[in-house]
Amino acid sequence: MSTTRKRVYGYLAEFKSASALYKAAEKVRDAGFRKWDCHSPYPIHGLDGAMGMKRSILPWLVFFGGATGTLTAFLLAYSTQVLIYPTVVQAKPVNIFTIPAFFPVMFELTILFSGFTVLFGLLALMKLPRLNHPLFASKQFHRTTDDAFFIAIEARDPKFSPDATKSLLEEIGGSNIELVEEEG
Amino acid sequence: MASHIVTSADVAPDGERLKSAKVDKIKMIAGGVSLLLSIVSAILLFGPKETWTANYAYSWVFALFFFFTLAVGGCFWTLLHNVSNSGWGTSVRRVFENLGAVYPWMFIFAIPLLIPNVQQYLYEWMNMHRGLDTHGGEYSVKEALHHTGDPHDHLLYLKHWYLNIPFWYGRFIFYFIGLSAVILGLRKLSVAQDTDPNPGTSRLFRARFHSTYTLIIFAITITFAGFDWLKGLDYTWFSTMWGVYLFAGSALNSMAVIIITVALLQRAGYMKKVVTPEHFHIKGKLLLAFTIFWAYVTFSQYFLIWYANITEETKYFLIRNTGGWNIGMMALVVFHFVVPFVILLQAWLKRNPKTLSLMAVYTLVMHILDHYLIAIPERSISLMNMLPDVYGDVETTIPGAFLGDILAFITIGSGFVFFYLRSLGQNNLYPNRDPRILESANVSN
After folding, report:
1. Is B80 among the domain residues?
2. Predicted confidence band of residue B1 (pLDDT cuts 50, 70, 90)
3. Is B173 exposed, middle or buried (0-12, 13-18, 19+ CB in 10 A)?
4. Number of helices and strands in chain A (H, E)
5. Could you tell me if residue B204 is inside a domain?
6. Nearest alpha-carbon partner for B257 in B338, B178, B365, B335
7. Per-residue confidence (pLDDT) for residue B317, from 0 to 100
8. What is residue A1's predicted lDDT score, i.e. its pLDDT?
């Protein structure tokens, strides 16, 4: 038996099916919680709506990432091929009308920069990579990769209260409700 | 975001039909206008003045092919929906089919191209074939091409297997019989489901099976009709991208027509239960995808020709980069690709029928510019070569011929509207007994 005081992560509640999880998520959303999440073995269509999640800002990051790529490629090609060292190929003009020759490069760098922004933007928004997650302390949580559906409400949420949140989870059909404490 | 699940109780057992006095009125006005202007067009095409016929022949090809691409695109989306076993679009599939059903009627507007009096101003190679000295029938056309003494005619000799008049007529007939049979057959199969007391899945699977090989008929039609009617305007020009280029515009703009149609139908109170913002979102994505595809193909064609710099290929772009045409060509880059690409990236816009319809209208306007630049710049240069006495002092454009382009566009356009509204009113607006109608109504993406 440990005597150290542990920090409470939050409540974890299991739900029977994807549709039970979906309906419970709508109720947690309507109860006004912000710091909470659903865990399911597979993606559930429309769950983001049931959880009341806002659209990610990732598309905007990607747009500006891609635009940076376009601009970088254009400046790179234009400055080297037109301004610094004019390169005449097959008597083609060496001015802004050479731009068709730059399009493939502009296209490629747009894709490359967009791809990088997607990858690194996504990792940053998801706060990944990380070595551990408090929920791993739960003995039942590993079943989320197999056959169990969970809702976890964090203690950081301003609406969280040890009794009321627990009874809310019971009310909306949660079972095996567990108060998860961080390890160590 | 399925807030309300559509069940079979929401779908009318006998479907919805387009019944509106307003639509009937628009249809009759469009039909009347088309009929009236067709008479005017006939006078221009077959009338007394040579310059009328010559100028207006090009106007006609431009307008004909513009609306041809829209109708062909309707066939394409029907075929693609069937062959890809799609569930999302069952609610709007009938609109695809009804747009495709306009295709057979395009034959009426294509008739002028069959008549030598019109052909002589459009297709120079036909004039050369017809004017050959065959020594009283001793030589065949091919042999006669070999013996004209003009080295330029060697190209026609080599192309004779494809570019000869009987084969041209044969292909022309095939385009209309082939794809008409395909789309009318699929539409009949789909409509028969609406009243069947035991609908089942057999028609769905039959439509899927028959859409596979008929997709080839579609591909042949759009490619070779484009070769025969548009690329044939200059028989010396080569481009292997041509068919794909026309297909990209066709798929893009028929989707624009479908979006506008569904948005207007919903506004008038139809298809309320089965079409949701999700459907507009998917169609908007397709609009965006084909905007990109069009740009990709169009630029590839330009880029390869520009880079290789081969005389046989550059001619097309030389004509279109001369004088005022150059502004149009550069406008295509910005306004047919960059602007709609950036605007259509936004998700909220694609989910809103009103904003998406505005973008669809914009896309169609750009399609007019695109097809105007395909057909019309050829007019002054070809007529100048063919009739130097009449058109000798013409530069890049023929003064006044622009009015003919508008007239031809309105003539065929109002006919298109008439036949489209007619086919929309002939059957239920959505396949109400299709096994996938609920899957489609509840689609989320």
Report:
1. yes
2. very low
3. exposed
4. 5, 4
5. yes
6. B365
7. 94
8. 53
Asked if residue B366 is part of any domain, the answer here is: yes
pTM of the model: 0.91
Per-residue model confidence as pLDDT tens digits over A153-171 = 999 999 999 999 999 999 9
* Structural domain count, chain B: 1
3-class secondary structure for chain B?
CCCCCCCHHHCCCCCCCCCCHHHHHHHHHHHHHHHHHHHHHHHHHHCCCHHHHHHHHHHHHHHHHHHHHHHHHHHHHHHHHHHCCCCCCHHHHHHHHHHHCCHHHHHHHHHHHHCHHHHHHHCHHHHHHHCCCCCCCCCCHHHHHHCCCCHHHHHHHHCCCCCCHHHHHHHHHHHHHHHHHHHHHHHHHHHHHHCCCCCCCHHHHHHHHHHHHHHHHHHHHHHHHHHHHHHHHCCCCCCCCHHHHHHHHHHHHHHHHHHHHHHHHHHCCCCCCCCCHHHHHHHHHHHHHHHHHHHHHHHHHHHHHHHHCCHHHHHHHHHHCCCCHHHHHHHHHHHHHHHHHHHHCCHHHHHCHHHHHHHHHHHHHHHHHHHHHHHCHHHHHHHHHHCHHHHCCCCCCCCCHHHHHHHHHHHHHHHHHHHHHHHHHCCCCCCCCCCCHHHHHCCCC
* Residue span of the structural domain in which B311 resides: 41-123+164-438
Contacts of A46 in chain B (CB under 8 A): 1-2, 444
3-state SS, residue A38: strand
Residue numbers in A near B293 (CB within 8 A): none
- Which two tokens mark B173? 């007939």
Could you report the per-residue pLDDT of B44-89, keeping only the tens digit for each?
A: 999 888 899 999 999 999 999 999 999 999 999 999 999 999 999 9
Chain-chain contact of A46 with B307 (C-beta, under 8 angstroms): no
Mean pLDDT value across chain B: 93
Contact B2 A46 (CB under 8 A): yes
pLDDT digits (tens, 9 = 90+) for B410-436: 999 999 999 999 999 999 999 999 999
Interval B242-282: pLDDT, tens: 999 999 999 999 999 999 999 999 999 999 989 999 999 99
Residues of A in contact with B345 (CB under 8 A): 59, 63
Distance from CA of A46 to the nearest CA of B (A): 5
Residue in this structure with the two tokens 């709506």, named with its chain if needed = A49
Distance CA B283, CA B93 (A): 12
Q: In this complex, which of B1, B2, B306 lies closest to A100 when CB atoms are compared? A: B306
Which position has the token pair 């929920």?
A: A135
Paired tokens of B279: 């459907």
Using an 8 Å Cβ cutoff, are B236 and B124 in contact?
no
Answer yes or no: is the ipTM higher than 0.90.
Answer: no
Whether residue B25 is contained in a domain is answered as: no
Residue type, B178: G
**Mean pLDDT across chain A:** 92
Report whether pLDDT(B149) > 60. Answer: yes
Cβ-count burial B259-297 (b if 16+ within 10 Å, e if not): bbbbbebbeeebbebbbbbbbbbbbbebbbebbbbbbeb
DSSP-derived 3-state class of residue A11: strand
**What gap in Å lies between CA B154 and CA B174, rounded to an integer?**
28
- Among B288, B297, B303, B311, the strongest candidate for a mutation testing the A interface, having the largest count of A CBs within 10 A, is B303
